[in-house]
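Thread amino acids onto this structure.
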């Protein structure tokens, strides 16, 4: 199985409502990542069946236990985009911190390339591959329901939970993140290229990880 680049959408539990899952999938479609099919054991489920299943799991505040069969978890979905061979997504619920996440995965080999300079191998995100994902994240933020959007690579420590982010913790910016404008006063923001967004958001980009500046 390849390593994956992930876009992690974070939502506060209180933002959940009937139709939440359907609206999210449809918004992704309008942002260029259209529903394709269910994954694995859910490959024959229709869009409506997947929506009902995952919405019911979220409504029930379901969180998969460590010793529980994975077949009981939220159903994963494939999405289509002309730039990528595989895009997959799944829901996660964290009861203890009252946070819901949706993780959108693309194989790292589709997103990144490397070049050798003076006997050093530098990895970077290809702009042709990164740009559609970043545009999608900005559009999804403008919808107003996400509390933060972070990105990560397979071996990273993972997205920072919302309570820590609000307390000043640095988000995972691999190579971008969208955070509330209220977090703009934290010192870590100065490390990144910053763009103001609608709906009181900030787009942070680590330019050193993008094409022409690779240092990963």
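Threaded sequence (216 positions):
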């Amino acid at each position: 199985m390849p390593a994956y680049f992930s876009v992690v959408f974070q939502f506060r539990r209180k933002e959940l409502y009937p139709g939440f899952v359907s609206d999210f999938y449809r918004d992704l479609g309008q942002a260029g990542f259209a529903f394709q099919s269910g994954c694995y054991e859910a490959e024959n489920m229709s869009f409506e069946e997947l929506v009902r299943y995952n919405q019911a799991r979220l409504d029930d505040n379901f969180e998969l236990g460590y010793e529980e069969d994975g077949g009981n978890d939220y159903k994963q979905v494939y999405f289509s985009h002309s730039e990528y061979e595989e895009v997959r997504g799944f829901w996660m619920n964290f009861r203890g911190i009252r946070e819901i996440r949706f993780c959108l995965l693309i194989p790292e080999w589709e997103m990144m390339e490397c070049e050798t300079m003076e006997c050093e191998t530098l990895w970077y995100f290809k702009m042709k591959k990164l740009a559609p994902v970043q545009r999608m994240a900005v559009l999804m933020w403008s919808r107003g329901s996400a509390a933060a959007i972070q990105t990560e690579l397979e071996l990273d420590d993972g997205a920072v939970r919302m309570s820590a982010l609000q307390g000043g913790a640095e988000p995972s910016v691999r190579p971008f993140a969208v955070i509330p404008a209220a977090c703009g006063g934290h010192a870590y923001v100065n490390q990144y290229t910053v763009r103001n967004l609608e709906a009181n958001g900030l787009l942070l980009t680590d330019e050193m990880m993008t094409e022409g500046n690779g240092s990963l």
